[in-house]
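Researcher: I'd like a candidate sequence for this fold, 334 residues long. If you have to choose between options at a position, lean toward the conservative one.
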């Protein structure tokens, strides 16, 4: 029996150029949309029982990095007997349960639940098993949003409010979800929610490269640690970080950008009580090394007004790999 594709969608990832941590306390953050993202496809699985789902997550090389079987019974998801109770599977089950709960709530609120769409997961699961495949377009350690893009895809598949779904399963600011949903770079404020789409430009005569140090930071753990820091110190830093984000969005010269990035790091060092990436690793670099998001891992930015000297410095770090910013991030050419 030929299987039917019920849903297929792709959304982009992101990086956070400024406002990390403090965006949680109301600072304006500057998020940039990635050229790379994640896709999700759903098809029938006629050989499986109704109410069962087979999930395969593929990395950028098309190799499975996670596989799980899940069973829906009486409105509750559980792992199939052949699926290990590893953190990745548990997080997936949590996301599916939240999406199911929101979809059920939505249908209950409607006088006549919608069943006309062939994409409706509730209807599909009652009739057949499903096979779901996700495909990443970037290495998982890069921190471009494997979790937030998945939440955006789940919300669209289940036709539920993406922001509510995000709040149920994540403790982040939500800027990453908004970029996935809109496909735009933006200035972002969490509360009250304010989004200003923009086109990011590279300063003339500059070198902006994204560097892969080969390590990964766990954002949720960093968020929890940040929330235990002094609230007064955090709040006092919000206005200046917001000013820096807004200035970076206006298209500064490379010299102005370097000064803004330095100010940003100095403020965060005071808030976090730890040295910045540039303080730790940037000795002799003709420019600035800037963490993107949680400090201590993932991609970081190398910015310089001396491209040749900067590339020579980067090339001497054999365990790092760098890419032109425009190869990974959508850049305005105007």
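Model: Candidate sequence:
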């Amino acid at each position: 029996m030929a299987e039917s594709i019920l849903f297929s969608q792709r959304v982009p990832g992101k990086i956070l150029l400024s406002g990390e941590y403090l965006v949680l306390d109301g600072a304006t953050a500057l998020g940039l949309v990635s050229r790379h993202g994640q896709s999700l496809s759903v098809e029938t699985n006629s050989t499986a029982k109704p109410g069962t789902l087979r999930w395969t997550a593929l990395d950028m090389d098309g190799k499975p990095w996670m596989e799980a079987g899940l069973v829906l019974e009486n409105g509750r998801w559980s792992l199939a007997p052949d699926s290990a109770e590893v953190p990745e599977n548990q997080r997936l089950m949590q996301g599916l349960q939240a999406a199911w709960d929101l979809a059920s709530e939505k249908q209950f609120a409607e006088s006549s639940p919608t069943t006309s769409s062939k994409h409706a997961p509730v209807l599909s699961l009652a009739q057949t098993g499903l096979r779901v495949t996700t495909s990443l377009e970037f290495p998982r350690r890069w921190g471009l949003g494997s979790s937030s893009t998945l939440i955006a895809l789940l919300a669209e598949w289940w036709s539920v409010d993406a922001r509510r779904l995000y709040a149920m399963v994540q403790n982040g600011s939500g800027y990453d979800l908004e970029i996935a949903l809109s496909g735009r770079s933006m200035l972002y404020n969490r509360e009250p929610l304010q989004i200003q789409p923009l086109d990011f430009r590279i300063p003339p005569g500059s070198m902006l490269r994204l560097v892969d140090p080969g390590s990964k930071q766990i954002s949720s753990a960093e968020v929890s640690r940040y929330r235990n820091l002094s609230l007064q110190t955090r709040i006092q830093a919000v206005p200046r970080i917001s000013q820096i984000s807004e200035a970076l969005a206006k298209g500064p010269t490379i010299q102005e950008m370097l000064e803004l990035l330095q100010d940003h790091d100095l403020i965060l060092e005071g808030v976090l009580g730890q040295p910045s990436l540039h303080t730790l690793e940037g000795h002799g670099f003709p420019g600035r090394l800037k963490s993107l998001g949680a400090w201590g891992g993932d991609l970081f930015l190398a910015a310089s007004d001396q491209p040749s000297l900067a590339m020579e410095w980067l090339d001497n770090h054999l365990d790092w790999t760098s890419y032109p910013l425009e190869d990974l991030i959508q850049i305005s050419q105007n």
